[in-house]
Amino acid sequence: MILRLLGLVAFVLASAFVPANAGEAELRTAISKFAGVRNFQATEAVVLELAATGDAKVERSLASLADGALYFRKADGGVFIGKEKGAAVELLDPLTGDTVGEAGKAEVAKIKINNALRRTIRDALGALTLGSADPARRLAAAATMFRSPDPAAIPSLDAAIAAEQVASVRTALEQARAAAVLVSTLPDADKFAAVARIGARGDRDALSLLTAFEARTEGSLRETAASAIRGIESRLALWAALQNVWYGIALGSVLLLAAIGLAITFGVMGVINMAHGEMVMLGAYTTFVVQNVIRTSFPGLFDWSLAIALPLAFLVAGGVGLAIERGIIRFLYGRPLETLLATWGVSLILQQAVRSLFGPTNREVGNPSWMSGGFDIGQMSITWNRFWIVIFALAVFAVLLYLMKRTRWGLQMRAVTANRRMAASMGIRTPLIDALTFALGSGIAGIAGVALSQIDNVSPNLGQGYIIDSFMVVVFGGVGNLWGTLVGAMSLGILNKFLEPFAGAVLGKILVLVLIILFIQKRPRGLFALKGRAVEA
Description:
This protein is an alpha+beta fold and 537 residues long. It contains 21 helices and seven strands. Strand 6 (374-377) and strand 7 form a beta hairpin. The model is unreliable at 9-21 and 532-537 (pLDDT under 50).
């Protein structure tokens, strides 16, 4: 421990007062000492000597040593990073990583380490990055040292804090120092300050550190740690609730996309379209086909694949919807049971057609680079694909709202919704409105499939997972009301996410269904009932 402490302090002094890193020759000389080690203590001394240089170029060799990939050649004592290839070992330069040749396995020997030495190497790598010119590397080093506190690192952290100019990095370094203080033998006054600083951080890593500290301390320190733990748990509970709200909004945006087309067709035409889910499925498969073509013929356009698939999915699903309305549904108006059965039959036909064309197994649809990964807000994690789906759902809602409220076609649709007979008597061609409305609703379901392909399996059964939820959203929000569909989708999405942790996914959906049934008993027309439909009686 004393040797480690001296080595890390030497590193701090080197990085603080030496204007330039050690020369390459000196680094190679230090690395070559690995060939002569006879025990773990000697290996540790070389590790600390390399860390004391403060040069980032030694990270490669130290990381390889920790991974068990550092070798020395028996003939001349040369030290290399090794990659085993059958009976041979590819030799890489320990500073640059360039390939310098090969050797037989009998010609080289692996430099052995144990768990204690791995911890030393980890600490040395963390200390090295504290002196990096890149703030991101210093921040990562501080995070690593916070999660694995070591009192031997306190001197190097003190020096790094004194030299740090970036406020966010300095805060992270101070938190790492506080974590090291908790496992040190410093006075209680220092530990009180450390508890306060870690408690202010307020994340799960801080909670873990304070919980471990509380278990091994006593007296007023224990009480202070317990108070900080309670504060962190309260903040984490709030963040967990906000995380559930976000998950609910993300789920609600998916339900909105799946249900908004159904809300239009159900509201204007009074048709219970059991094939609506298959329109979603067709949109997802359109995305799959577009990406396949791009992968094979235009790979450079992959990030644009969703933008290309959106209008095509709208046209495919809208065209199929128009054909269904003209070929079947227009003969069944006023007969809801027959319409339900007919569209259910159409849904089975479409599922089987897709199985015949693409097979019954799931198909891969990739995420463009701008929809991959995620980011954090406080203790909330937000993935880019969900984020962009929420934005997309709201954009679709806004465009549709404009279409319904600000265009002649939208005015005619609302007139047919309010009173079909009166609209027909005023010269509105209700059959044409019905056909175009059904095509629009189906097309919107198709672009919903594009979005769903980014978060769900693309299979012939894709639409079946959303059809019941879509009907619940429409009925709960108010048939034919776009604002009701938005509020209904978000409400049911958030309610589902808060119920699932306690009741499970299946029982949670059952509870939501029961609550909707009870709600409909009080408000048969949903949250936002359209006025004027009773005139048609």
